[in-house]
Design brief:
about 45% helix; mainly alpha; flat; 2 strands
Length: about 200
């Protein structure tokens, strides 16, 4: 919408925030959800009071000029409607599975023909003023992480017979490494906005 151009300034940070919350929550869906909702406070320059599991932002003090949103403004309400939509609220807790799939398949190698030469396909992009352009054909996706998850679930079920004990004992299991923190200077040199 026309009056929502301020949100575009936050798009990259929100996208980075989504990756960060999934990779830094140790598989705890409730923490992922609170971190996701914290973006609504963060864009208004409020960095605490997000929830009992994630009470404050973990970033350093923001010293550069940022185009903060005003809580209650039309722009804020539009962003809030997206962030708190049922579609996202239901799926955000299982975002980790999407991250696992992406991590496993991000570095797929190029598929080869029977004679050993690399495979390509032709793409016909409407946005570019070209007839066609070659695209690399990647090898098929793998789903090895699913078996790893199932084995882990089975092992946990054998070890912990009661679900509540399982949650308590495995709350600090690290499923993926946390992203390294970026300093304000590094963020500015990359042209990005700060993330929560």
């Amino acid at each position: 919408k026309r009056y929502c151009s301020q949100i575009a300034d936050w798009a990259r940070s929100i996208s980075t925030h989504m990756y960060w919350e999934a990779s830094s929550s140790n598989g705890n869906g409730e923490i992922v959800l609170q971190k996701w909702q914290s973006i609504l406070n963060h864009v208004c320059n409020k960095h605490e009071g997000h929830g009992d599991l994630f009470p404050t932002c973990q970033h350093e003090e923001i010293i550069k000029n940022v185009c903060w949103l005003k809580m209650g403004s039309k722009v804020y309400k539009e962003l809030r409607d997206v962030i708190t939509s049922n579609f996202l609220m239901n799926d955000i807790k299982i975002l980790l599975v999407a991250v696992l799939h992406s991590n496993e398949n991000a570095q797929r190698s190029q598929a080869l023909k029977r004679d050993g030469t690399p495979r390509y396909r032709f793409s016909y992009p409407k946005a570019k003023k070209v007839e066609h352009c070659p695209k690399v054909v990647k090898k098929g996706c793998t789903y090895d992480y699913v078996m790893d998850l199932m084995e882990e679930a089975y092992d946990l079920r054998q070890e912990f017979q009661i679900y509540s004990l399982t949650r308590k004992e495995t709350a600090n299991v690290q499923l993926s490494s946390s992203p390294s923190h970026i300093t304000s200077e590094q963020s500015e040199s990359r042209g990005g906005l700060s993330t929560p």
